[in-house]
Amino acid sequence: MSVALSNRFQGGKAFGLLKARQERRLAEINREFLCDQKYSDEENLPEKLAAFKEKYMEFDLNNEGEIDLMSLKRMMEKLGVPKTHLEMKKMISEVTGGFSDTISYRDFVNVMLGKRSAVLKLVMMFEGKANESSPKPVGPPPERDIASLP
């Protein structure tokens, strides 16, 4: 029973190859943004593009280079701000200008580097602050006794 490579969502060698191919494709798009005169005055552009690529790869669940409705839903739930189906469709429409049902990496970077306030820019900022403010405890939990229980 043979399964196509694109239909396999398990880890392993095939997954590593998919991620490597995706990373090369996104790195090529990043190079286009670095060479674009429109963004030449942007501060820390290489660092920003690297961070955008990392976040985009994290939420591109199907490894096809697009964030679809379910990937966006996962992103919003991970941030603790779940949205309705209609709200997410509106977000995608705002980012793509209504031309697509998915967010491409170019659209994602354009929104993040753009001057207008967009939902994805707020999401990235919020996620960064959430990671800074609440470091996860390490090691075993502290011992508790009956008196400390509510």
From TrEMBL:
Gene3D superfamilies xrefs: EF-hand
Residue runs in coiled coils: none
SUPFAM superfamilies: EF-hand (SSF47473)
The protein's name: Allograft inflammatory factor 1
Subcellular location: Cell projection, Phagocytic cup; Cell projection, Ruffle membrane; Cytoplasm, Cytoskeleton
Swiss-Prot/TrEMBL GO biological process terms: actin filament bundle assembly; ruffle assembly
UniProt organism field: Tursiops truncatus (Atlantic bottle-nosed dolphin)
Record GO terms (molecular function): actin filament binding; calcium ion binding
Superkingdom field: Eukaryota
InterPro entries to which the protein is assigned, alphabetical: AIF-1_EF_pair, AIF1/AIF1L, EF-hand-dom_pair, EF_hand_dom
Mode of membrane association: Peripheral membrane protein
Keywords assigned by UniProt, alphabetized: Acetylation, Calcium, Cell membrane, Cell projection, Cytoplasm, Cytoskeleton, Membrane, Metal-binding, Phosphoprotein, Repeat
Keyword Flavoprotein: no
Positions of the EF-hand domain: 47-82
Gene field: AIF1L
Keyword 4Fe-4S: no
UniProt GO cellular component terms: actin filament; phagocytic cup; ruffle membrane
Residues covered by region (Disordered): 129-150
Pfam family, one: AIF-1
Main location: other
